[in-house]
Q: What sequence folds into this?
């Protein structure tokens, strides 16, 4: 069996899943692993290695963690790559480095290209209410996610999925793609397919302000936002100046509505809470918060938190709606 020298670039857990697959493949000779530098994690700011580094160390693989990948051009060149394979590396790879791959520079991208090019395809698939996504194994080119793809594997998005569970599914799909196709690509038996540029869509990285819940949106939209941003960084809202992260919620059915007085309520208004969670009015429909995290505290069951909280009461509003309501009342006066 022909062996291929592979330089792998990845950083988070999904990249570690792909690296584990490459380690198991007899046709792969991992000559170098590249990941982002260690970073401070959590409230205690503990310096931790990324998941890809942990797997590389456990398997005695050579690893580098450049601040800028171009600074280690000579190290990568000495690794003599037939393939450069990336998955969620976190840096733009210059064309000069891509050209070092004797066969192909490959990227595992978390969408069914040409849909959802860009930095957060898995999150936006959930946020936009998609029921299906997938992994694409593509040739890296100078333009972001614009290269032809060699193969794709579809992945279903269940109503219960958040980004955490979907990332795991996507990692497994990506591992199968590499296992099934790498030798075929190396033997020139799997021709690439050009993307249809007329069907291309883009998703930028999610900004911190986009994590804020707009309660004037529908319950469906807000629920998808919460799922898309869980388990990190989480959607958030506030009561006055206190921030609350929302880790988990569910849409309500008619059977959930029996305790409620169905008069007109404002978006963001807390209508009711029980031992399970907190029911909130949205711009259209109701949502029940199940897991909440007050600023500076640990996540907790939302119902238990509400029963022991001074902030959570029926009629209190999440978001900036107290300010808006006061302004409306002042205008009436």
A:
């Amino acid at each position: 069996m022909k062996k291929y020298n592979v330089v792998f670039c990845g950083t988070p857990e999904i990249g570690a899943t792909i690296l584990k697959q490459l380690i198991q493949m007899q046709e792969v000779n991992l000559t170098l692993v590249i990941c982002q530098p260690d970073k401070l994690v959590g409230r205690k700011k503990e310096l931790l290695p990324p998941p890809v580094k942990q797997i590389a160390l456990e398997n005695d693989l050579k690893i580098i963690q450049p601040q800028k990948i171009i600074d280690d051009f000579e190290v990568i060149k000495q690794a003599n790559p037939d393939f450069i394979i990336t998955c969620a590396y976190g840096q733009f790879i210059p064309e000069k480095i891509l050209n070092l791959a004797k066969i192909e520079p490959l990227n595992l991208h978390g969408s069914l290209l040409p849909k959802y090019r860009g930095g957060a395809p898995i999150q936006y698939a959930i946020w936009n209410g998609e029921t299906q996504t997938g992994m694409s194994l593509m040739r890296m080119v100078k333009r972001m996610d614009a290269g032809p793809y060699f193969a794709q594997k579809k992945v279903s998005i269940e109503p219960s999925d958040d980004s955490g569970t979907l990332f795991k599914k996507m990692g497994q799909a990506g591992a199968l793609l590499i296992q099934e196709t790498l030798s075929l690509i190396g033997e020139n038996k799997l021709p690439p397919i050009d993307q249809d540029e007329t069907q291309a869509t883009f998703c930028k990285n999610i900004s911190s302000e986009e994590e804020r819940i707009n309660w004037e949106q529908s319950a469906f939209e807000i629920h998808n936002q919460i799922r898309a941003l869980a388990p990190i960084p989480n959607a958030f809202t506030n009561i006055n100046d206190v921030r609350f992260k929302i880790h988990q919620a569910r849409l309500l059915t008619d059977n959930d509505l029996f305790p409620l007085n169905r008069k007109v309520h404002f978006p963001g208004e807390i209508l009711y809470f029980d031992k399970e969670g907190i029911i909130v009015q949205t711009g259209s429909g109701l949502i029940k918060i199940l897991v909440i995290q007050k600023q500076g505290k640990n996540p907790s069951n939302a119902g238990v938190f509400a029963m022991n909280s001074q902030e959570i009461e029926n009629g209190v509003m999440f978001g900036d709606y107290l300010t808006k309501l006061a302004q409306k009342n002042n205008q009436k006066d």
